[in-house]
Amino acid sequence: MPESTAPTTPSRLTTSPTVMVRRSIELMKPVTWFAPSWAFLCGAIASGASQWTWTDVGRIALGVLLAGPILCGMSQVVNDYCDRDVDAINEPQRLIPSGLVSARQVFITVAVLVVLGLSIAMFLGQYVALMTAIGMVLAVIYSAGPIRAKRNGWAGNTIVAVSYEGLPWIAGHLAFAPLTFGSVLMAALFSLGAHGIMTINDFKSMEGDRVSGIRSIPVLYGEIAAAWTAFVTINVAQILVVMYFLHVRNWVIAAIIGALVLMQIPTQWKFFSIADPRKRAIFYNASGIAMFVWGMMAAAIGVR
């Protein structure tokens, strides 16, 4: 019988350290690490103070490790643990409800990530440590009761967008230099855009959200209205970025980001022609988000 469908027994929790580490990393969902890691890199570039020296490259590498594997990984573990009862009904094969990962292992994993995260953050500076602490608090507020912000699509997506884009960007900047207006504005606008991307991601879990009482934006307003809400949010955020660079007469960056926005329109329009909401999210994640991501880098270079 495959491991994922075997009955839960104490022996399943008695395994090698290598397997336990592998399962903890699986709980941390490496596929989610890119966004905050990229945002930290963009913030570091936006600071204008990072150079191609071994010291600065090392600091960026530590920041990327902090934002992605450690902090984002920690938030994923916390979220899976808080969702264990719902997952036991909807997805009993997952690591925690299946008994492959114990509560003790979850707590140890979170503790290790918290200690590592705060240690690296303090090394990068007290303001980076402050952003890190705020991110950790938001991770708990998002997933855990009594607040459990994920139950509301607007509040939950705002927390995720700020945690994945805004805070890492600002932390990346603060790791090298004091904040500037342009950099903070870019962090805020790309967080707004990320809110729309989070709404697209919610399409793939609509059925489970309805059953578990999570009022995601697709659940609240239906598929078409939610899609329009998401794309208006994504595009308005990027158009405001273009307007900023037009205002400061940085024509090249404005043109680059404007072109990237236009390239997203056909992808977004095609989104409405796909019948299955889950395939809609997969399709857009595979095709549309790349231009948004490159727009972030262009903006970071433009404000440095």
UniProtKB/TrEMBL annotation:
Taxonomic superkingdom: Bacteria
Cell compartments where the protein resides: Membrane
Topological category with respect to the lipid bilayer: Multi-pass membrane protein
Keywords: Chlorophyll biosynthesis, Membrane, Transmembrane, Transmembrane helix
InterPro entries linked: Chl_synth, Prenyltransferase_related, UbiA_prenyltransferase, UbiA_sf
Gene Ontology molecular function: any one: transferase activity, transferring alkyl or aryl (other than methyl) groups
GO biological process: chlorophyll biosynthetic process
GO CC aspect terms: membrane
Coiled coil start-end: none
TM region(s), chain numbering: 31-54, 60-78, 99-118, 124-142, 154-171, 177-198, 219-245, 251-269, 281-303
Chloroplast is among the record's keywords: no
NCBIfam families in alphabetical order: chlor_syn_BchG, PRK07566.1
Protein name according to UniProt: Bacteriochlorophyll/chlorophyll synthetase
Organism of derivation: Roseiflexus castenholzii (strain DSM 13941 / HLO8)
